[in-house]
UniProtKB/TrEMBL annotation:
InterPro entries: Poly_Biosynth_Transport. It comes from the Bacteria. The chain crosses the membrane at residues 13-33, 97-117, 129-151, 163-182, 188-210, 230-251, 263-282, 310-332, 338-354, 374-393, 399-420, 432-450, 456-477. It is found in: Cell membrane. Keywords: Cell membrane, Membrane, Transmembrane, Transmembrane helix. It is a multi-pass membrane protein. One of its GO terms (cellular component) is plasma membrane. It comes from Prevotella fusca JCM 17724. Its main location: membrane. This is Oligosaccharide flippase family protein. It holds the Pfam family Polysacc_synt_3.
């Protein structure tokens, strides 16, 4: 029987967000070190080649893998929570069978379309052989994606964290020497090697838990159509999202200058990627738990509301501090040439508050297996985003683009909540609304202070507000999750073990 106490629920969420948040931070740090070496060894041309090869093979992979790495989690999670070992074993075999099929189809597509990829990705047609040699990357990534979905579904979260860290460490240790000795000639072999390492690390854990079993019988594969439909919706939503970003960047490049796209991209990276690491950490644990409880109305609502509470309370002090030190972060991560992106980045930080409240609700259609609703909600946001960024940029330049993203996020939150309220009977809890009101108010006041030219407001009032936000979050999390009691218990256990030794 699983525990469902208030303390266990909050403490579990906090524990795994902290675990994967730390892992994401470590991965980013190792990635920054590796990118620095790669930039020094290969220069802009080599970095550009890696980027183009990666983005092209990713496009092929995303177009042929049917989103199994996401949709399979739902089926596996339901079996795991029901403790139905026979169905779990069957669904794992189903995921592996479909993953192998998509891996082979993706590799075949990469080989067949390699002349077109070479012609349209580069200004000169000389990389056909490179794309043929990169085709195993597509297959290896698809196979690893299926195994990662299995590990998520059966809640092997510490194993997933270890795989993630070992993967980026291997990329640093194995590829940098190759680039040092062979320069640009090592790019294609290194990309294949990285994909192979990721797959080996994943199957070492996954196959030990569940030995390999696959079947290509038509009746057996037919059981996976629900998974494929949901995965296809996920892929289409991703393509629409990428298309929306492409439209925005093309618009900024046409009506502004190429530097404008650079400012937009740097502000986006600063907030949506670096500050958004906690959201990536959330997905690894949250989606499998939500999928496992999708038929339990009260528990389902409780899981969503608790996730919003913990995510909001964790990220709010970080966002306030992020607002305070954004100019210094831009100088550290980029240079003073990117300071014009500051105003947009500041507004995007405010948008992150709404994202913390919206993202857990957006997972509801996926957990329910409602592919049409998920695709509808995601495409609606893409429309909001494109229209409002264009309108905002026309009115206030790069700052207006940030306003457009923030307003699109707010409108999408309202739209998603109303849809979830009417279709799935989801209800925001009073505690979520109260914590949101408090932390959003603090965040907006910090935003006004850092936008002021007064040093007293910026380094006086804003700092005090950051401290208040931190105290509020810590006090609530302490009372909700029993953090102090858990810490005392851990210390006591350590002392007890030492005394026995």
């Amino acid at each position: 029987m699983k525990k469902d106490s208030n303390t266990d629920g909050y403490l579990h969420i906090l524990k795994y967000i902290s675990l994967f948040g730390g892992v994401q931070g470590l991965n980013v740090l190792i990635g920054i070190i590796r990118n620095k070496f790669v930039a020094m060894l290969l220069g802009p041309q080599g970095v550009g080649l890696i980027s183009l090869f990666n983005s092209t093979t990713k496009l092929i992979g995303d177009s042929t893998n049917f989103g199994i790495s996401m949709s399979a989690v739902r089926n596996i999670s339901e079996d795991y929570d029901r403790e139905d070992e026979e169905k779990l074993t069957e669904d794992i075999a189903l995921v592996r069978s479909w993953s192998l099929l998509t891996a082979l189809s993706g590799m075949f597509a990469c080989i067949v379309f390699s002349p077109l990829l070479s012609r349209y990705t580069f200004s000169w047609d000389g990389h056909t052989l490179h794309f043929i040699l990169l085709s195993p990357c597509v297959a290896l990534t698809a196979l690893a994606g299926g195994e990662l979905a299995i590990l998520k579904g059966v809640r092997k979260l510490r194993s997933l964290a270890a795989i993630s860290v070992y993967n980026v460490l291997a990329a640093l240790v194995l590829t940098v020497p190759l680039y040092y000795f062979f320069s640009n000639a090592a790019i294609v072999p290194s990309l294949v090697l990285m994909a192979l390492v990721q797959m080996i690390l994943t199957i070492m854990v996954s196959y030990r838990l569940y030995p390999l079993r696959i079947s290509f019988h038509r009746s057996f594969l037919g059981k996976g159509w629900g998974m494929i439909r949901l995965g296809t919706a996920f892929v289409l939503a991703g393509i629409l999202g990428s298309g929306a970003e492409l439209v925005i960047r093309s618009y900024l490049n046409n009506v502004g200058e190429i530097e404008t796209v650079g400012f937009y991209n740097s502000a986006f990276m600063m907030t949506m990627v670096y500050a958004g690491m906690i959201f990536s950490a959330m997905e690894t644990d949250y989606f499998p738990r939500l999928s496992g409880a999708n038929s339990l109305k009260f528990t389902f609502n409780q899981i969503v509301n608790r996730q919003i509470e913990v995510t909001l309370l964790l990220i709010s002090p970080l966002l306030a501090l992020f607002l305070l030190f954004l100019p210094q972060l831009i100088l550290f991560l980029y240079s003073d040439k990117f300071l014009p992106s500051l105003s947009m980045a500041q507004v995007l930080v405010l948008a992150m508050y709404m994202r913390a409240m919206r993202l857990p609700v957006e997972y509801i259609p996926l957990a329910k297996g409602d592919s049409r609703s998920y695709l509808f909600l995601e495409s609606s946001y893409d429309v909001f985003l494109v229209l409002l960024v264009i309108v905002g940029f026309r009115q206030w330049g790069i700052f207006g683009a940030g306003v457009g993203v923030a307003v699109a996020g707010f409108l999408n939150f309202v739209f998603v909540y109303v849809y979830a309220y009417s279709r799935y009977h989801y209800r925001l809890s009073s505690s979520v609304m109260f914590y949101a009101a408090v932390q959003l108010s603090i965040g907006f006041l910090v935003f006004l202070c850092v936008r002021s030219e007064s040093d007293w407001l910026r380094w006086g009032v804003a700092v005090v507000l950051c401290v208040i936000s931190t105290i509020v979050s810590l006090s609530v999390l302490k009372s909700k999750a029993g953090l102090w009691e858990a810490l005392v218990s851990k210390v006591k256990n350590k002392f007890t073990r030492h005394a026995k030794d």
